[in-house]
Design a protein that fits this description.
about 35% helix, 10 strands, Immunoglobulin-like, four-stranded antiparallel beta sheet
């Protein structure tokens, strides 16, 4: 038998063996996996009801059901219909905290319950001020309000000039760095990236918002790099 033929047979046999091995692994999960699957309750329950505020039924708001009773944290979110009604389906048997969030509302106080066939009423509270309502706006809303430095300020002239990094040649360059650099690690627009109250608490030597942002941007292992780039 030629060497090339023997080599081809060995290669084919090896491939068949690997296919059989992987097929066997797929057909017979580990005992730990099987045990974990047995411990997960079948998702047969549901929670249904209506969301009401002092203005009546609340349409288009989120109803959140969350639990830590299962093998991993479990959260399910639905939206109310035009009559404020909702159903959170396919819930494993567990104790859930159920609460309401919506634009123009403050987060409701969670109630604890198990899936049930009875309809419940969740009480929503209208925010008293625009500032109170804004607490639940998502980070991308706040980021959309951010105005980049004017085109006339580029290229940047550094800390001793206009404060924009000397490596920032154009406004588009600056925006790209913000998206591909800053946004790569941070959820820009969330509370920690638009508010510096935590800086005042951490450093009693900080007295102004300018000092607070200086302290905030210099913090962390990449602080100096972040600060000097933009």
């Amino acid at each position: 038998m030629k060497t090339s033929t023997r080599s081809g047979i060995r290669t084919a046999a090896l491939c068949v063996g690997l296919i059989a091995l992987f097929a066997g692994l797929g057909a017979y999960p580990s005992s730990a996996l099987l045990q974990s699957q047995r411990n997960v309750p079948a998702p047969t329950g549901y929670i249904q009801g209506v969301v009401q505020s002092e203005k009546g039924p609340e349409a288009g708001v989120w109803v959140i059901a969350e639990t830590k009773d299962l093998l991993t944290n479990f959260i399910k979110i639905v939206v109310t219909d035009d009559q404020g009604k909702f159903m959170v389906p396919d819930l494993p048997n567990a104790n859930y905290k159920v609460w309401v969030r919506g634009y123009g509302l403050v987060d409701s106080t969670p109630i604890t319950m198990k899936p049930d066939t009875k309809s419940i009423t969740l009480r929503a509270t209208t925010a008293k001020t625009p500032q109170e309502a804004a607490q639940v706006y998502p980070g991308n809303y706040w980021l959309s309000l951010m105005a980049p430095p004017d085109r006339s300020l580029f290229p940047g002239t550094g800390a001793q000039g206009n404060g924009i990094g000397a490596g920032m040649l154009t406004q588009n360059h600056w925006i790209n760095q913000l998206k591909s650099g800053c946004n790569f690690c941070h959820q820009l627009g969330n509370k920690l990236t638009r508010n510096v109250d935590h800086v005042y608490k951490a450093d009693t030597n900080v007295h102004t918002s300018t000092e607070a942002w200086e302290r905030r941007l210099h913090g962390g292992v990449r602080g100096d790099s972040m600060y000097s780039t933009l």
